[in-house]
Amino acid sequence: MPQFESPYFAAIDLGSNSFHMLIVRFTDARIEIIDREKQMVQIARGLRNTGNLDNESQTRAIECLNRFAERLRDIPKAQIRAVGTKTLRSSRNSKEFLKAAENALGIPIQIISGYEEARLVYTGLSHTIVDDEQQRLVIDIGGASTEFIIGRAYETFCMESLSIGCVTYTESFKLDPDNLSRTAMHQAYLSACGKLEQIRRTYLQQGWKIAYGTSGTIRAVAELLNADENSGVITRKALDRYIETALSAGAINAPGVAKLRRNVLPAGLALLQAIFDQFKIDKIHVADATLKEGLIYDSIGRFSNHDTRVLTVSQLQEKYRIDTPQADTVTETALHLWEQIDSKRLINGVSRTKILGWAAKLHETGISISHNSYHMHGYYILRHSDLAGFSRYEQYIMANLVRFHRKKILPERFVDMDKEALRAFTPVLLCLRIAILLHRRRELNSILPIFTRAKHRYELTLDKEWLNNHPLTRASLQQEIQQVSKIGLELTFQ
After folding, report:
1. What pLDDT score does 481 carry?
2. Is 36 left (phi over 0), alpha (psi -120 to 50) or beta?
3. Would you tell me how many other CB atoms lie within 10 Å of the CB of residue 424?
4. Is 141 within 8 Å of 218 (Cβ atoms)?
5. Using an 8 Å Cβ cutoff, are 326 and 364 in contact?
6. For the whole prediction, is pTM greater than 0.85?
7. What residues does CATH 3.30.420.40 cover in the chain?
């Protein structure tokens, strides 16, 4: 059983439509929900034609996060995860907004890919419903994107995130619940059908036995369609009937539904109708669990032997035919160097020790593509692949370690890092470069030199006999002194 500083865990989902906070207590291998909070911030509504979040949406978001922060004060920061999804992936000024958001919340916020969003949605659902061993389709309609996952038990077979969401479609097609236009609804429906055609064939071929919907929009529609009955299921006939009634009346009849939710219901209905038609679904079962529950289970896994990122690294090694004995030897030396100088500081909330270890294991990812430029190919693969468990920023740091583990260091390439992050990054890069350099002959013997640090000055002490027997390594270390000086580091060796 893993040991935690506290039994409490928290997850914050900065969605395009709503911000969610979930707090749980984990005891005796059971999760008990202690508190939950939701605010319909609708930051997707503030994404202007310029691609920037407007001031009004940023203000709503920060006010919400300030309220969340009060409830998080007594929970260890390591046991809180906050993620941003489609709108924060897309907005041009999200970097500036995130600084203010992190200050309000008091913890780092990770931007995750659509693939990772889909994985977390499925993780949340798979841990909270009875495992009937059936293949299932999971649908999560968000404010700016919708995730589609096919899986069985805890394993996934298909995962996609499409840019169709109830907030963005409301804005794009001018959908108004009080003045419902048949033409606008049809245009939204056709647009969604066009996006769904990209994945329709693959998903129908994979197949499923049961479909689940996990979003607030789906729950709201289910409650509308089944006001006097079981609201846990949406049938195709009931959906079509309700939409036609609403179109004939020219308005959405949704008593008791909050105004902000009601405003996006027409788009939600159009999206659902397109999903039913394109995927040939008869009914969708409504599930309570979604991304925030997935975050909780994923966070607990990181404290045990179930960190998804470890499996992802292993799969990458296999996929790109990496020489794992060599990678393990480099990893051992890199971490040995790092442990002697580690100040325990994070890179914007990212563990430097873990990232260094994974980068060392993956530094030859691109070698099967090109020997001369394999570091460049490795960078591209790690930067742009869908890597389960990794945030975009974790991928960015890991990819740059791989990009600059050899040859010239180009400081101007680190424009996306602020000064503090760059100061945290450079000693990690130094450890990786030295470890790879020491194992250039691909000898699998341990090389565990003494490594000391005094501010920006580093001294490497090697066995003299070993160094005399490796003149090429000595020459490479002399060259390395020049390279690391470009990022403000002073290296000596003896």
Report:
1. 94
2. beta
3. 19
4. yes
5. yes
6. yes
7. 8-112+293-298
